[in-house]
Structures are given as C-alpha cells and as structure tokens.
Amino acid sequence: MKYFLNIRILIFLLIGINAMGWSTSDTSITKTAFEQDLAILQQSLVANHSGVFQYIGSENLNKQFTLALDTMPDNISDVDAFLAISRLIAVINCDHTSAEAPPHIITAIHKQNILPFEFKFIGKRMYVLKNYADTSLKIGTEILSIEGESIAEIVDKIFPTIPSDGFITTSKYRTIERYLLFNVMYTLLRGNKSSYKIEYKSVNNNISKVITIKGKRLTTMRSLFKEQVNKEPIPFKIIIDKLMQTATITITTFDQASYKEHKQNFKKLLKKSFTAINQDSIAHLIIDIRNNGGGEADYGAHLYSYLTNKNFKFYEQLSLNTTTIENRDYIDFGLLKLLWVKLLTKRDKSSGRYIVKGNTLKNNKPAKNNFSGKVYVLINGLSYSASSEFCTIANDNKRATFIGEEGGGAYQGNTSGFSFTLTLPNSGVQIDIPVIHYQMAISNKYKIGRGLIPDYEVIPTIKELISGEDSELEKAKQLIKEH
C-alpha cells in the first residue's frame, strides 16, 4: 500500500508526531550518543532508502549530517535532537519518509498551550478559518505576525522540518494548515506560552491591530480535531447532471481501509459509475481528487483505465537499492517484508539495483465501458502519492485538463510502498524508511522534483472560502460551458 498522507497527519495529532516533537522535560543525550544516532541514521538511509539520492547528492548529504552534529552542544535536549533529525529527514525531499517522536515527548505535547485557531494559507498569507477562542477575531481575519515575528519568518522555520516530494511547497502549506499542525509546530519552535500577541488585519479593513489571546491546551483541542476526523467525507461519490451532460466524481482517498469503513468498494463503484455515465450520454467528466493522499497503488491505474481506449503503461519500473537490511539491530523489518524483497526482485547487473519482477501495472488494458468525453481533474497540494501518479499518467497521455494548484506528489514517481522502521538507540526517534522506488511510465520531459502544474491555476480568495464557494469546481464548470 502506498503511503496515506491524511492518516499521517491524523496519527501525528492523536497518537504520535511526524517530523516534529517537543518536551517539557529536562532529558538530554550527550553529543557522542547523538553522533552515534546520526551515523546509524545516515547508514540506514543510504543503504535502505531506494530514492535517497534522487534530489540530493551524497556529498551534500554528508555536509548536512556534519553540520547537524557540529552545531550541537555537548549535552543535547531531546527536543533539539528530534528537531535536528527531523530536518535531516526532510532534506532528502521524500514525503514518504517520516520521523516519530519517542513516547515521553508525545506525552508532553498534550500539556502545551497552542494557538486556538485553525488557519488557511492562500499564497503565503495566513487567515483564520476557525476560532476556538473567546476573542473578537472573525473568520477571514489575516494574521500578520505572532509575537512580533512575521508569518513568512515563522513558515521559513517550520518548512525545513516538514518533508515533501522534491521541491514542492504546496504540500507543505496544505499539511501545516490541517489538524492544528501549524499551531503545534509554532509551540514546538517557540516554547510553551500561556498567551500570544497577534498582529492582524480584518477582512474589510486594511488597518492592522494587535491583540493578546490565551492559548488552549492540546488536550482541550484534541476533541475538536477528533470531531473533524469523524466528519471526514465518504471516499467516493458521483453526481450526474443530465441537463449539463456532466458527471462529477469525488474521490477523497485511495485507502482501502477507508472504503471498508464506509462499506464501499472502489472498483465496483467505478464500474457502476462509468456504466451510468455512458448510458446517460455524458459528455463532460469532472474528477475531484483534492486532498486525496493516496492509498492502494493500483487504484490510480484502475481509474485511468476508464479514461482511455488504448493499452497503457502505468509504472515503468519498481526497484530497490538492496535486498539486505543495514543496521538490523535497530530496524523492525518484518519477515514477510524481507521475504517479499528476496523472492520478488531480481538484480539488474548494469545498474546494480534490484528490479521488482512481474510489475503488474506495466501493461494495462482499458476498461470495457471507458469514457471518451472531456475530462477535468481538480487537484491541490494534498493530491499526493497514488493520486498524483494517476495525474501523471492522465497528463502524460493528454487525457485531462487540470485545475487547482501544483499537486503534492513528484511527477516522475516516488519512493514508497512498504517501509522499515528504524529506532535510533539514544534519542529514541523512530524513522519510517520506504524501500521501493516507483518510476512512472512517462514519455514527456518534466521538471525534476515538481508536482503536476495545473493547466489552470485557481487560488480561492478568503471570501470565497468563507462563503463556501468552490472556485476550482466553478472553473471546471466555466470551461465546460465554453466548450
């Protein structure tokens, strides 16, 4: 199964922390112990991560590890150790590689006071989307600074701890604005505060003002985002407008567990939906995969099979660095995973890599009731992993018009699949290391390390968001009317 972004964020808040953490304790490790952790981490990434050098050279990676050690004091707090490791994880530019804080830090975070708002980033500007405080700040208020530090300056400090594929920033913005992640990160970097001085500007007024608000404990806030999680939309729905000859399919995830939870079957739903689309002579199809963080690897190929009448490739190649595990004493690799690696790969003599045998998504047939009309796909920075792979193939075959913002997954492919879990012996930080590199079957050149750039970039205004207007969907409808 491909890595599922929404689940990662959820786990971060309700159970653990991904690529960040803090503690109010006085625990620390020595610089010598930290050096051992960094050596184990670097060895494990180089040996086991199949895309570790996709965006960074070995010399540069060495420099980053050396710098991380050289800038540390003789005794290193658990917070500083964790943040340093988080930055090293992020520097390889793989959104499927994640770090989790040790249990004592996870326990400590729930005692922290955080900013009592949900935020939305539009471009580089930050707005209040939901207010849980007893203040006069209304929805749509722009936040200019916190404790005298501009939002841009704060983001510049948060981003190096947040992984993303290649050089994509839309995924980082969409990640930190969800489930209070910006709030938690700010408190981690700036320490626990009972109150916050905020400079802001209201929706209908260009005059900036300053207000001091009280923070709320994360334990209090947990019920708020738990309630949000429970309201997550169903994975799949379709709306057919016969008058407009338009069908809209919304797919919020490719995660099989989510479909089971909602008593849905992805492949059966696709078959039923496209049967209805063709029976009703629908001419235009809108596919909404915004916030679709991925899931099953074959779901994207299965979806695309309904958009083509030709045989097609999906993955060009699946490969691994090695079939052995470096630093086994610190890695939970699982016997089934190791057997899979050993039995289902074959070494390529020219590259030295291990190629997955029987790539079932290399040669694919179109679905019988495929759709031949116009296709419009809505994407954003959380259209990621398996959903971004679907976008790559649809775009490479010129089968869809894309609307929204840059997608969250690298166009050429990613390193994902299953992961091995590395536990560093001194800091206790755990790192998930993905081992399979997925190379997409593409013929067109594309900027390395970028996500799919939409044909029509649509950035909603804060007023549109407040009013509930869906500007990306409206753009698709406008294009259909003009067709």
Describe what you observe in this structure.
The chain has 483 residues and is of the alpha+beta class. The chain folds into three domains: 5-109, no CATH class; 113-174 and 191-230, PDZ domain (Pdz3 Domain, Roll); 236-482, 2-enoyl-CoA Hydratase, Chain A, domain 1 (Alpha-Beta Complex), CATH 3.90.226. It contains 16 helices and 23 strands. It has helices spanning 5-14, 31-48, 58-70, 78-90, 103-109, 151-158, 170-176, 181-190, 218-230, 256-261, 266-279, 297-304, 335-343, 386-396, 462-467, 471-482, and strands at 28-30, 75-77, 98-100, 113-114, 117-122, 125-131, 142-146, 149-150, 195-201, 208-214, 216-217, 236-241, 246-251, 284-288, 315-320, 331-332, 345-347, 354-356, 374-379, 401-404, 413-423, 430-440, 456-457. The strands form five sheets. Strands 3, 15, 16, 17, 18, 21 and 22 form a seven-stranded antiparallel beta sheet that branches. Helix 12 runs parallel beside helix 14 (386-396). It is globular and about 70 Å long.
Compact overview of the structure:
By secondary structure, the chain is an alpha+beta fold.
User: What is the C-alpha radius of gyration, as a whole number of Å?
Assistant: 23 Å
Q: How far apart lie the N and C ends?
A: 38 Å
Strand content: 15-25%
Shape descriptor: globular
Secondary structure class reads: alpha+beta
Low-confidence stretches: 1-25
Number of helices: 16
Instruction: Count the beta strands.
Output: 23
As for the number of domains, it is: 3
Give me the CATH architecture of the largest domain, please: Alpha-Beta Complex
